[in-house]
Write a structure and sequence with these properties.
Helix content: over 70%
Keywords: Membrane, Transmembrane, Transmembrane helix
Structural class: mainly alpha
Main location: membrane
Order of helices and strands: HH
Strand content: under 5%
Mean pLDDT: 90
Pfam family, one: DUF202
Radius of gyration: 20 Å
Distance between the termini: 14 Å
Shape: rod-shaped
Organism: Salinimicrobium gaetbulicola
Transmembrane segments: 26-48, 54-76
Length: 90
């Protein structure tokens, strides 16, 4: 039977770095969604880019899918980090 060790400061700092990396990754997804959505809207609004109108609709449709993926990935990783907390505190 494995004995649970108490975490030392280095371990807590590693967990904090992992949590911050997860948040940075989510913010990168959010930033990408905003850029893709803005590009899609620009393609629809600028009259000189009428040839790319279909691509604008594709970008606008793709941005919510990417947002859902980013949020689900953030929650998935956060849940695993919290599960690690619970395992180490016993």
């Amino acid at each position: 039977m494995k004995e649970k060790k108490e975490l030392i400061t280095r371990d807590w700092l590693a967990i904090d770095r992992t949590k911050m990396a997860n948040e940075r990754t989510f913010l990168a997804y959010l930033r990408t969604v905003i850029v893709i959505l803005g590009s899609g809207i620009a393609l629809l609004k600028v009259p000189a880019l009428d040839d790319l109108r279909g691509f604008g609709f594709i970008l606008i449709g793709f941005s919510p899918l990417l947002l859902v993926f980013g949020v689900s990935r953030f929650l998935y990783v956060r849940r695993h980090i919290h599960m690690y907390y619970k395992e180490t505190r016993k």
